[in-house]
Design brief:
Layout: H1 2-18, H2 29-47, H3 51-70, H4 79-100, H5 107-110, E1 126-130, H6 139-149, E2 154-159, H7 167-176, E3 179-182, H8 192-207, E4 213-216, H9 223-231, E5 236-240, H10 246-251, E6 254-257, H11 300-312, E7 321-322, H12 323-333, H13 346-352, E8 356-360, E9 366-370
Parallel strand pairs: 1-2, 1-4, 2-3, 4-5, 5-6
Antiparallel strand pairs: 7-9, 8-9
């Protein structure tokens, strides 16, 4: 309808200036102004630019044309009567355009006029907890790690809160502002909680604006969910115990063993003063590489992974490679995390591996070189 009405106004303007078709009245300054408004306004309506203000202007001009030129002539069957009816229809139609404004084919809808729908919300980082397969005692260090990965806007813990075993989670949900999600065990042995977590996760995923997803569980049933989320380019951070099946570990972008997370730093050994009598006190044993509670040993598989990542990357003339690049390549093949081995950062883990040496350069950037 917008285009049809626009063509009517545009043709009226062409008729006034070019006589196509011939205009039945003598041109006056007022008709010249009306013709300019009809030509310009009709053209803008055809392409859909500034539809609201143009519709408002044309509806006002149509109403003025009716009361100033057509209505004083009274009822008649002359061509002017037909124009009078056309003026009424045009005024009504363009008034509707003023209210409805743009449609799907208007340029204003795409660029110039702000959209009436809500502005997209900022990115969200959900964190879902499977209370049946996670311990509330490890929540504090997990939240600390999540704070390093990004802001967690959605926090939910799922379980059947009628179970006495989940009392710890009830207390932690209040302490940390986590939204509890109730799911009754409708049938014994069925994973109704897992289904609800999966449905909620997919709902958030299809809303968009997700820049990270955290899942705290040791259940392998979430392996397909983690893989599906990663297919949309969203990283998945898994948190579980050392008993977590390998399938779920590898499905995550990064999997962190919660038993390796420790909030308390280990005390540094103190040097002892010489003993009385001139005898030296026994030197303290050299401290082992810093490892947190439950840290995994650095095995041959991890060393091979780091060597392969080093060999695949670019190195400078001295044989050094950026630690960031090495970590990215290793992360593409495995979901390992330095915290699983008792280190807070990847640089600390590399320094504990005798196969590599590190060098800190200008700007604090760390580079790695393989020595054996």
């Amino acid at each position: 309808m917008r285009i049809v009405v626009a063509l009517v106004f545009f043709s009226h303007g062409i008729s006034k200036f070019f006589g196509l078709p011939p205009f039945p009245m003598a041109m006056t300054p007022l008709l010249n102004v009306a013709g300019i408004i009809e030509v310009v306004g009709g053209a803008l309506l055809i392409v859909g630019l500034f539809t609201r203000p143009v519709a408002f202007l044309l509806s006002g001009m149509s109403a003025a044309a009716y009361f100033l030129a057509h209505a004083p002539q009274g009822p008649s069957r002359s061509p002017m009567a037909a124009r009078r009816r056309c003026s009424i229809v045009s005024c009504s139609s363009i008034s509707l355009q003023r209210v409805a404004a743009r449609g799907a084919w208007t340029r204003g809808a795409a660029r110039l006029i702000p959209a009436p729908w809500p502005i997209p919300q900022p990115a969200t980082s959900p964190f879902f907890i499977d209370a049946d397969n996670a311990s509330s005692a490890t929540l504090d260090p997990v939240l600390t790690v999540l704070a390093e990965l990004g802001t967690v806007n959605v926090r939910r813990v799922y379980g059947n809160w009628s179970k006495p075993a989940l009392k710890g989670w009830r207390d932690m949900s209040i302490k940390h502002g986590i939204e509890p999600q109730q799911q009754f065990d409708l049938t014994k042995g069925k994973n109704a909680t897992d289904m609800k977590m999966t449905i909620d996760a997919m709902d958030l995923l299809f809303r968009g604006r997700i820049d990270g997803f955290g899942i705290m569980s040791s259940d392998s049933d979430f392996m397909p969910l983690a893989m599906r989320i990663r297919q949309d380019g969203v990283p998945v951070y898994g948190f579980g115990t050392s008993r977590t099946p390998e399938g779920f570990r590898q499905a995550c972008t990064r999997f962190i063993d919660v038993s390796a997370l420790d909030d308390e730093s280990e005390p540094m050994p103190l040097s002892l003063p010489p003993a009385i009598g001139g005898e030296k006190a026994p030197a303290p044993a050299a401290p082992a590489a810093r490892r947190s509670r439950g840290g995994e040993p650095i095995g041959s598989d991890l060393i091979k992974l780091l060597i392969d990542a080093y060999n695949a990357g670019k190195r400078d003339e001295k044989g050094y490679q950026s630690l960031t690049e090495l970590g990215q390549r290793a992360g593409n093949r495995s979901s390992f995390d330095a915290r699983n081995y008792g280190f807070n950062h990847l640089s600390e883990l590399i320094e504990a591996v005798p196969n590599f040496q590190t060098e800190r350069r200008d700007g604090g950037r760390i580079y790695v070189k393989r020595v054996r």
